[in-house]
Amino acid sequence: MAKNSLMQQFSRRGSQSGEGFTMVEVLIAGVIMLIVMVGTARVSTQSITSGRHRIERDRIEAAIHNNIQLIQQADSRLTLESIPSQDQRTACLNPAAYLKKQLSQQGGEIAVAEPEISGVSNNNLIERSITVGQHPGITVVTYQFSAPEHSIANERRTIELNPNFQTRCILE
User: Fold this and answer.
1) Going along the chain, which residue ranges are E strands?
2) How does pLDDT run across 106-152, given as a tens digit for each residue?
3) Most CB within 10 Å of its CB: which of 24, 70, 165, 172?
4) Contact 161, 133 (CB under 8 A)
5) Residue 15 belongs to a domain
6) Is residue 155 in some structural domain?
7) CB–CB of 83/145 below 8 Å?
8) Single pTM value for the model
9) Torsion angle in degrees (nearest 10) through CA of 143, 146, 147, 149
10) Domain count, the chain
11) Is residue 128 part of a domain?
12) Could you tell me the strand order of the sheet in which 139-146 lies?
């Protein structure tokens, strides 16, 4: 019996006019839902953009790292014995300049091409420069590129090399 009276109360309450949501309540719920959806959309968009930038950055960093490895391998192959005897004195007088020349020489035995990246927008080209350092015997390799993130402008990676062969140089 108690069950039937409870069911009758619910059925009477649902059939009464004036029950339900007012227009103001519906509008407030709609505005709250809109704010939540806009926030979710922004987070999703930011996440997608961040992921794309991360992929581009990883490709740029990998290309630079690979190029550094190739330069270090070329430097280790450039021994005093591998340098022609007529060039050994010049190489020993300025090892950094000799290494720079050998790394940059088109078609040379230890020449290393600039890093190439694939699948990255044209805004992220890597520029490499090889210079003689301020300190004797130091070759400086600098990589400069435009960062994929808009909040960062240009970035630079620099390595300094002591030519491998210079420890074997004996100048008279």
Assistant:
1) 127-132, 139-146, 154-161
2) 888 899 999 988 655 655 588 999 999 988 889 999 999 888 877 77
3) 165
4) no
5) no
6) yes
7) no
8) 0.68
9) 180
10) 1
11) yes
12) 127-132, 139-146, 154-161
